[in-house]
Write a structure and sequence with these properties.
It is a single chain. With 348 residues, the chain is an alpha+beta fold. It folds into 2 domains: 264 residues, BirA Bifunctional Protein, domain 2 (2-Layer Sandwich); 75 residues, CO dehydrogenase flavoprotein, C-terminal domain (Enolase-like, domain 1, 2-Layer Sandwich), CATH 3.30.390.50. It is built from 11 helices and 18 strands. Helix 1 crosses helix 7 and helix 9 packs across helix 11. The chain is elongated.
Length: 348
């Protein structure tokens, strides 16, 4: 095997798929990884590490502290409420799978399947959603897969799913809103009204709900999580529990520092885009077009004459990172506060 796992919290499975109508998982063996870490950077890095190193299938449960997770091909400037997230110190982290933006907190449970097979059969949302649906049906909750990747109860979304394929291995993962703070969720992923033109993947906004609101009995999140683990184990009796070795955790920590905590991955990886803004200058509304490639400001154009200090300040921002810290670091010792404020208004 490419990784060595201590038997403890986790499990692996080998799949044999049966039936085309009622798509379910049929495993003769599997790893269960019931992670205790609540660090969103570490947990996302763990998924990437496992999908690239495991030689057997795996099921993993995990939770994150408050965080906003964007899809691989998204632009966070379009997808989230930046001011709100800064106020609450909620991080934005890019994952390796596609799809839309989701909010995580400790009222949400994340699940991951890692499986191997032929490339054309790896991505299968119905197959990997079925164990979740089956458990909820046993709890008298009428959960359904709606569309390609959403799990819903009474038309309200409680789970978004996405996939990432690496060679002959697939990572399928999803959220399970159990008793999340839906007010913070809605405010966190409120679409930015700034006019941005790009080819990034846009999120489809849905009315959301918590699983706990639909249960016939009071079940704590911890108990529900245990029920899900037991459900998997009962259906796949040869599944076995294990945990990451110290060596593996150290490699994942390296991935966190090199990638998942980096501005280059979380923001700079966004597809190139144009930002359209305007500013009132000497009682005239001047429009600006800002071009950004790989997170760096490449061109700033205006349709009117600019005061010399503002024009000079904008010129200094070319080839700088499109982030507020870069503005301050570049301009603070050379321009007054009002010019820096104007530059911020134009660029964000």
């Amino acid at each position: 095997m490419a990784i060595l796992l201590r038997f403890r919290y986790h499990f692996i499975f080998h799949t044999t798929f049966i039936g085309a109508i009622n798509e379910k998982l049929y495993f003769c063996a599997m790893l269960i990884i019931n992670r205790e870490s609540k660090d969103p950077y570490f947990n996302l890095a763990t998924e990437e590490y496992l999908v690239k190193t495991l030689e057997e299938p795996c099921f993993m449960l995990w939770q994150n502290t408050a965080s906003v997770i964007i899809g691989k091909h998204q632009n966070p400037l379009r997808e989230v409420n930046m001011d709100f997230l800064k106020k609450l110190q909620i991080p934005i982290i890019r994952r390796i799978s596609g799809g839309g933006t989701v909010y995580h907190d400790l009222g949400n449970i994340n699940y991951s399947f890692i499986d191997m097979g032929k490339a054309e059969t790896l991505v299968n949302f119905a197959k990997y959603s079925q164990p979740i649906i089956d458990l909820l049906q046993k709890l008298d909750v009428d959960a359904q897969l709606v569309g390609k990747s959403d799990l819903k109860i009474d038309g309200k979304k409680f789970s978004g799913n996405a996939s990432h394929v690496y060679r002959n291995t697939v990572l399928h993962h999803g959220t399970l809103l159990y008793n999340s703070d839906l007010n913070i969720l809605q405010e966190s992923i409120k679409i930015n009204n700034t006019q941005i033109i790009d080819k990034a993947v846009n999120s489809n906004r849905s009315t959301v709900t918590n699983i706990s609101e639909h249960l016939q009995q009071d079940i704590s999140l911890e108990k529900f999580r245990a029920l899900l683990v037991a459900h998997i184990k009962n259906n796949f009796p040869e599944a076995r529990f294990c945990s990451l070795s110290e060596s593996q955790e150290n490699k994942i920590k390296q991935l966190v520092e090199q990638k998942y905590k980096s501005w280059e991955w979380n923001f700079g990886y966004s597809p190139k885009y144009e930002l359209i803004s305007s500013l009132n200058i000497d009682h005239q509304q001047v429009k600006f077009k800002v071009q950004v490639t790989k997170g760096f400001l490449r061109k700033i154009e205006s349709d009117g004459l600019l005061p010399t200090p503002l024009q000079s300040a904008l010129a200094m921002m070319i080839d700088k990172a499109h982030q507020e810290n870069a503005i301050v670091e570049t301009l603070e010792n050379q321009f007054p506060a009002d010019i820096i404020s104007q530059v911020k208004s134009i660029l964000f």
